[in-house]
Amino acid sequence: MYPAFTIHSLPVHKTEIAPSTTQPTGHQMSISSMHQVPDTRLWIGGMFALRGKEALKEAGITHVVSVLRQPLDATLYEGYQHHIIEVDDVEDENIIEHFAGANEFIEKALEGGGAVLIHCAMGKSRSTTILAQYLMQSQSLTPSEAVALIKSQRSLVEPNEGFMKQLELYHAMKYETDIDNHPMYQRWLYQCELEAAKAAGVAPERVHFRDAERRVAEIAGEAEETTEGGEKKHTECELRCKKCRRTLATSAFLTPHIPKSAQPPQSRGPAQPCSHHFLEPLSWMRPELEQQKLEGKLECPKCQSKVGSYAWQGIKCSCGEWIVPAISLARGRVDEVKIRATQGLKGSVL
């Protein structure tokens, strides 16, 4: 899933512990429970590492980043600059919104000659994610490279799948510090809201209209062709109201799915196309979709003829595939017109 990354001759940073026949002391145990990123003053560990004050002093720790939500014992952090990120280790947790604040704290610590311990409960998922994203933007690493670098010193590290996707999103956004208005972040938030609404069986509180957002080409994701002169071009299809010819959507806004065969196994005839074009919310649908109804009909904004329907809980396509959420134009109510647009998306479908 993630690109391979080979680490060559990485120095191993470990503290030797003298053999003993007695039970290990708190200092010895905490040394083994935190690990240093090679050639940095960055350490990673779990909660237990905080109890070894001598080990923390030996490592030169001056700043601590706590990445967990549980109540914290304030006495553990006495004498350190402390930054708290309250998140749970669950896949749908929004951890990317904390990256900028964490980076500012870490950078100030390192610029001042300090050393930073980043910890969660186990030093496995949450702390790894925060450390990895800092390494990504400071050393120009991919998510898999950053995690591999940490894993070379602490073998148990493993961000959960949701956190890994957010590291990939952060990388795709080129380590943007102001993410709130970034179209890729807004797109990700919208998908999270759809999943939450789907689980609750309700319509989403906010509808994301793709054609109305800024810099939509950054997240369109459609395939690109190139002319002989190197100019980018797109082969698209416009969907137009069969009655008044008003353009309702282009292929850039369609939601592709892999159709199941709509024909019985014994049929020798060609498979019929799906009876619906599924697409993303567009601005001309705003008056209907913002009513927060679970399902309803879509009318052409020009001639008011019925052209489709929507169901946030999903519908079963004629091919047998279940589509969630389902915002669709009926194939029999629109005409498909092939066009070719150059340099970006053609036209608005507002």
TrEMBL record:
Tyrosine-protein phosphatase domain residues: 33-176
Entry EC number(s): 3.1.3.48
Chain coiled-coil ranges: none
Annotated Tyrosine specific protein phosphatases domain residues: 97-154
InterPro entries: Dual-sp_phosphatase_cat-dom, DUSP12, Prot-tyrosine_phosphatase-like, Tyr_Pase_AS, Tyr_Pase_dom, TYR_PHOSPHATASE_DUAL_dom
PROSITE patterns linked to this entry: TYR_PHOSPHATASE_1, TYR_PHOSPHATASE_2, TYR_PHOSPHATASE_DUAL
Key words, A-Z: Hydrolase, Protein phosphatase
Family named by the database record: Belongs to the protein-tyrosine phosphatase family. Non-receptor class dual specificity subfamily.
Cellular compartments per GO CC: nucleus
Source lineage: Eukaryota, Fungi, Dikarya, Ascomycota, Pezizomycotina
Active site, renumbered: C120 (phosphocysteine intermediate)
This protein's name: protein-tyrosine-phosphatase
TM ranges: none
Organism of derivation: Pyronema omphalodes (strain CBS 100304) (Pyronema confluens)
Domain of life: Eukaryota
Keyword Nucleus tagged: no
